[in-house]
Design a protein that fits this description.
The chain is mainly α. It is built from 15 helices and no strands. α3 crosses α5 and α4 crosses α5. The longest helix has 26 residues. About 60% of the residues lie in helices and about 0% in strands. Bound molecules: fe (ii) ion. Fe (ii) ion binds next to α11.
């Protein structure tokens, strides 16, 4: 028996509190790094307070994804070598990777695929910025990494049944996020945004995650959401970890037009993204 989507939506939102937050030390470090005058010793102490965060930070700091060429052995070295901007990325990746690596049954995503998709979107954003000759907007990396966190909530914690979603998507020729809205009264983008809001992440990140499938609806400056949306579409096109999200995927033609990136240029970036991910594949994992 189908449940009223409005009731389903309320039930889903009421259960967000049951989703475990990122490790407290990581959240503290992420917040500290929002202060441009953050003191290095307090940052080092915060990271070192948590053994698994320390291990994750060192592994990511040494990974080719973050340009690690010379090994760093201590958190202090990582802070000095990477600088605050890159360290912010490393801390986020170290904190989120264990959660993002899990298999997501309801979304047909084997273990590792959501994480791989997050990295593909992050790399794609970087490549699109270079192709468009634009600086990368602040928060774009964070939003790219957390883009589909709502799927973890819906697939793993709420355990939604994907069958009615797929049936509606096929019968009504809807994109998967539109099918989620039709059946559940909410899509994974809004669920993810609500979760990130409850984690006190900056509103700029929350907005990009919330509107990553509907960039036209994003209030204010759309640069970051357009970029994340286009990078998401590129990752889906090259088959990197979108799961059921790839079903009837509808990239926004307006987002590409706003960036003045013609189709041929986007295809070149997609190829470059594929090559880069192939090059990094197997070397991205910190779990290995
Ligand atoms: Fe998505």
């Amino acid at each position: 028996m189908s449940v009223d989507p409005r009731k389903r939506r309320e039930e889903i939102l009421s259960r967000l509190g049951t989703v475990p937050a990122l490790p407290a030390a990581a959240m503290r470090a992420v917040r500290l790094m929002q202060d441009p005058d953050v003191s290095v010793p307090s940052l080092v102490t915060t990271i070192e307070y948590d053994a698994s965060l320390t291990a994750g930070v060192l592994q990511h700091a040494n990974s080719p994804f973050f340009g690690g060429t010379r090994r760093v052995a201590t958190v202090k070295e990582a802070v000095v070598r990477l600088g605050i901007n890159n360290l912010r990325k490393v801390v986020l990746a170290a904190a989120f990777e264990p959660m993002a690596r899990q298999q997501i049954l309801g979304y047909d995503m084997p273990a590792g695929s959501l994480w791989e998709h997050s990295l593909a979107v992050a790399v794609g954003v970087d490549k699109l910025c270079k192709a468009a000759g634009l600086p990368q907007p602040p928060h774009a990396f964070t939003a790219a990494i957390l883009i589909d966190v709502g799927k973890i909530v819906l697939g793993t914690f709420i355990k939604v049944d994907p069958e009615p979603l797929m049936a509606v998507a096929y019968e009504q020729s809807l994109s998967f996020d539109a099918a989620e809205r039709a059946v559940l009264g909410i899509d994974h983008a809004e669920v993810g945004a609500a979760l990130l809001e409850s984690w006190n992440l900056p509103p700029e990140v929350v907005d990009v995650v919330r509107w990553h499938h509907q960039p036209e609806s994003c209030p204010g400056d759309r640069t970051a959401v357009d970029l994340v949306h286009m990078a998401d579409a590129l990752a889906v096109v090259i088959g990197i970890g979108g799961g059921l999200d790839g079903l009837n995927y509808r990239p926004s033609p307006d987002a590409a037009a706003r960036f003045n990136l013609p189709r041929a240029e986007r295809e070149r970036v997609a190829l470059e993204l594929l090559e880069e991910l192939e090059r990094l594949r197997g070397r991205l994992s910190t779990a290995a």
